[in-house]
Amino acid sequence: MAEAKTETPVSDDPQTAQDAAANAAEDQVDDTIPEFEQLKPNPPKASKDLDFSRFGGVQVTLAAELGRTQLTIQELIGLAEGSVVELNRAISAPVELVAQGVPMGNGEVVVIDNQFAIRIKEIYPS
């Protein structure tokens, strides 16, 4: 009894073999792209009816920045008690008020009962 054989042509050319393998892989890939519903942007709107009283007890960090400067590592290592570091702000310039890292206003340094305080001069618009 004779068997019928089907032979796949074999090529000695490596590029032809790679192309055949790539075509076989492409046949197995599902090329369907899922469809999504198109939505319109919906930006949040401020509502005057919101009650923020429940957040009244949440604590935030408020910092007053007097000024900044840049030092080399050598200058930093050389600092000791009594050293003076000059800042980039004039004494009459307002200090920046920063709440949780967000600038919120500025003011001037005052002294109340031997403690520094800030008199707010400006609250920035949101």
UniProtKB/TrEMBL annotation:
Keywords recorded for this protein, A-Z: Cell membrane, Cell projection, Chemotaxis, Cilium, Flagellar rotation, Flagellum, Membrane
Topology term for the membrane: Peripheral membrane protein
Skewed-composition ranges (Low complexity): 12-26
Domain of life: Bacteria
Transcription regulation recorded as keyword: no
Gene Ontology terms: cellular component: bacterial-type flagellum basal body; plasma membrane
Example of a GO MF term: cytoskeletal motor activity
Region (Disordered): 1-50
Principal location class: membrane
GO BP field: bacterial-type flagellum-dependent cell motility; chemotaxis
Domain spans labelled Flagellar motor switch protein FliN-like C-terminal: 56-123
A Pfam match: FliMN_C
Cell compartments where the protein resides: Cell membrane
Gene3D superfamilies the UniProt entry points to: SpoA-like (2.30.330.10)
Similarity section: Belongs to the FliN/MopA/SpaO family.
Protein's recorded name: Flagellar motor switch protein FliN
Protein's gene: fliN
